[in-house]
Amino acid sequence: xxxxxxxxxxxxxxxxxxxxxxxxxxxxxxxxxxxxxxxxxxxxxxxxxxxxxxxxxxxxxxxxxxxxxxxxxxxxxxxxxxxxxxxxxxxxxxxxxxxxxxxxxxxxxxxxxxxxxxxxxxxxxxxxxxxxxxxxxxxxxxxxxxxxxxxxxxxxxxx
Length: 159
Hints:
The structure is a single chain. The chain is mainly alpha-helical. The chain is 55% helix and 6% strand. Helix 1 (9-33) runs antiparallel to helix 2. The radius of gyration is 20 Å and the shape is elongated.
């Protein structure tokens, strides 16, 4: 069996389209709420912005799983299913190759959000152990520029 002849082949393309549209719509919404001013800075606390960012990063992770996959067989996966999964990722990746989605596939921002507890533990330890340069910390705050607050705030959650 090959991917192009599989019965649910089209569903993968629909999923790619849905995820892509969802990501685009959420990005446009975030950028409409948060705009960099021509002069000065933007400092904003807005749960909706962070919620949309979390959601679009989840969509990006799901899109990534469609086009990139492990080269190791999963538990209980036979050789034919493994081959089909690898081929699916290859075909869909080739389908999207003309798009510049490198940053969308970068897990750093998503991991920062998903593993916030670990980043917070590390920051808490490091700042507590040292004489902190910064007395302020930013948590779920949108800053247009790092210079918006002086001295610079310690970024607890960077997006």
